[in-house]
Specification:
Blueprint: E1 2-5, H1 10-19, E2 23-24, H2 29-35, E3 46-50, E4 56-61, H3 65-71, E5 76-79, E6 87-89, E7 94-95, E8 98-101, E9 106-111, E10 117-121, E11 125-126, E12 130-134, E13 139-141, H4 148-162, E14 166-170, H5 179-194, E15 204-209, H6 212-225, H7 233-237, H8 242-249, H9 255-261, E16 265-271, E17 277-290, E18 295-302, E19 307-309, E20 314-316, E21 321-327, E22 332-338, E23 344-352, E24 356-358, E25 361-374, E26 377-381, H10 383-388, H11 390-393, H12 395-411
Parallel strand pairs: 1-2, 1-3, 8-10, 13-14, 16-25
Antiparallel strand pairs: 3-4, 4-15, 5-15, 6-9, 7-8, 9-10, 11-12, 12-14, 16-17, 17-18, 18-21, 19-20, 21-22, 22-23, 23-25, 24-25, 25-26
Helix pairs in contact: 1-6, 4-5
Length: 412
């Protein structure tokens, strides 16, 4: 299978894919040099690239779910039940219990349900190199096609179809195919569109929300290619770019950069298996410990609104505060809630992947199940949510969660 790789994980991923028998195409000059790879300007079967905030990996094309699930054992790995670029028929603005936007009776999936809804456009016939649909007779280009001569070549192939009333959009693979292949695909797509035949199209869409543990795993793989790679390289790259390169070039350690990520107040990002991100109330840093192998950040969060503490079922009152510690070596955070006079109200232990440090923010993947203590009673909560998301969490973490629960119960 031919794989195109882009983004901050490119070096580690290239080694991983090569070691597992994949073929790398459209490699950047830097990757070609690092791996002594011949330049293969060929169409890819699958593209693997950064997601929106570089904390995610996206795979589009052929199905490599099994490989990604085996590789990223402590990350969330989600395969869309709806294929990208498939054409679906909807019922009352819904498809497979997902909300559909806009509310079309039939449409092309342009965004799978990564946020709980499917985004559609009007139906199009989609191939490896292009998309075709009836319209104003115009040609469009993928944002990745920038070369003027290449655009001219592609335009010369699509203009005859434009004159017949077809719109054509050239995809990023188009520059790597010859004129005969491209023309043949346009002919097939035009026929498929006119015959309303979209049965064979669609590409697998897989999202990996990469945990700190798996980022460190990628650090170690990258280190086999570039020995100066520092621990937390991929995590630090999310907040810094040139600074990480400079430190690695001078063989310095990572402590200075880690310390720069810790600000007076820190936000907390809580990521659910279904991809939803919640920002918890920020806290003031009351203790920090940073060295090249781990970090600890302790926060105080003061509450000004009344309510009920979820899970604890204890009243929240003005002046209450929470002391919580984030340790990059631990798979949980212990929240201790006090009233304004310093009396303990309850303890809530959030089971999660070890926390990452971003600029002014702590982030972790929430593993659904939690442990709470009020008075002398210790309870495990949300086990049903864990079971519901078992496939996304994966077998390795699923088993580990129960070990962590026992560890936490002993602490409490």
């Amino acid at each position: 299978m031919k794989v195109r790789i882009r983004g901050i994980y490119a070096t580690a991923l290239t080694k991983l894919f090569l070691d597992n028998g994949f073929e790398i195409v459209q490699a950047t000059p830097q990757i070609s040099e690092r791996f002594s790879l011949p330049i293969k300007d060929e169409p890819s079967d699958v593209t693997v690239k950064d997601g929106n905030d570089k904390g995610e990996l996206i795979s589009i094309g052929e199905d490599i779910y099994s490989f990604l699930r085996k590789t990223f054992q402590t990350s969330f790995v989600w395969k869309s039940p709806v294929k990208l670029y498939s054409v679906i028929e909807t019922n009352n603005c819904k498809f497979m219990d997902y909300q559909v936007e806009p509310c079309l009776d039939k449409g092309l999936v342009v965004k799978p349900p990564t946020e709980g809804r499917v985004i559609l456009s009007s139906p199009k016939a989609v191939g490896k190199y292009s998309m075709v649909w009836r319209g104003d007779g115009k040609t469009f280009f993928s944002e990745h096609i920038r070369d003027r001569e290449e655009k001219t070549r592609l335009l010369s192939i699509s203009i005859p179809f434009n004159k017949k009333g077809y719109n054509v959009k050239w995809r990023s693979n188009a520059p790597f195919a010859n004129n005969i292949v491209l023309k043949e695909e346009l002919e097939k797509l035009a026929m498929r569109f006119d015959n309303d035949d979209f049965r064979q199209q669609g590409e697998d869409f897989i999202k990996v929300t990469v945990s700190l543990e798996d980022k460190i795993m990628l650090d170690e793989i990258r280190k086999k290619v570039l020995p100066n790679t520092i621990k937390f390289h991929h995590m630090l790259k999310m907040s810094f770019s040139n600074e990480v390169d400079e430190i690695e070039q001078t063989s310095m350690n990572n402590e200075e950069l880690l310390d720069k990520l810790i600000t007076e107040y820190m936000k907390i990002e809580h990521i659910k298996p279904d991809g939803r991100k919640f920002e918890l109330k920020e806290g003031k840093v009351i203790y920090k410990e940073v060295n090249s192998d781990y970090y600890i950040v302790r926060l105080m969060r003061v509450f000004s609104r009344e309510g009920i503490y979820d899970g604890l079922n204890v009243k929240k009152e003005e002046g209450d505060y929470d002391i919580v510690e984030f340790d990059s070596r631990k798979w949980y955070q212990i929240h201790r809630y006090y009233n304004k006079d310093g009396k303990l109200k309850g303890i809530y232990v959030n089971i999660s992947t070890p926390p990452e440090l971003l600029r002014g923010k702590l982030r972790y993947l929430d593993l659904e199940v939690d442990v709470v203590k009020v008075g002398d009673e210790v309870r495990i909560i949300d086990l049903e949510e864990l079971e519901k998301n078992k496939d996304i969490i994966g077998e390795t973490m699923y088993k580990k969660i129960f070990t962590i629960i026992e560890e936490v119960k002993k602490i409490l």
